[in-house]
Amino acid sequence: MKKMMLLLPLLLSVNAFAFENPCNDGNCTMQQIEAVNRANYKTHEQLMQEADQWEAEHYKWWVDYHREAQARADALPKYQYKPGGQKDNCVTRFYEEASSIIGDNAKQYINVREIEGGKCEFEIKDMAYELCEYFDSFSSLATPHWAAAEWCRYRLEGVAVTTEYRDIIYTPAFTDDVKQQLNARLKPIEDKHHKIYQNLYKQHLKQVNK
User: I want to staple 106 with a disulfide (CB 3.0 to 4.6 A). Which of 23, 47, 70, 99 is the partner?
Assistant: First the structure.
């Protein structure tokens, strides 16, 4: 299966530095111009602080999110083939059927674990977001992890935007203005995902603690 890694850069929104200049009509005195310059400088400093704070908070959330995802992946039981052993369980059945769907070894891209009642739960690995197009098919084979559907929705939405820039990323054409434009389009997607994920996590905790 074709594998892609598409960077979603964390950048600052160009709209954050926009301000209204009352002297645009050219009728300001020198004192007014100086006052506007001082006001704009202060506004710029404030916006820089807010942007730095937002980036720091978002980065911390992003690190925590992936640390939790990795911890879940590490905690999954590792299937080991035993010659002559019983292979008829939901984990092996899932991998066999999922592999036939994608035409590749599903173990490379999907984590599966057995849960109660002989059923299985799956989640697609972080860099295998392309498999989200088969999400419904996988869901017919096993139960999705509580955040799996939202993760696929978020990744596909973000990738759809970033793909529009794939031909210029890492080229001179990918200027700061273009980066800011891209970030302005990605930030609402990130914020929406963050909000939905937090709500899903709260619901999951309530379910676990029943």
Answer: 99
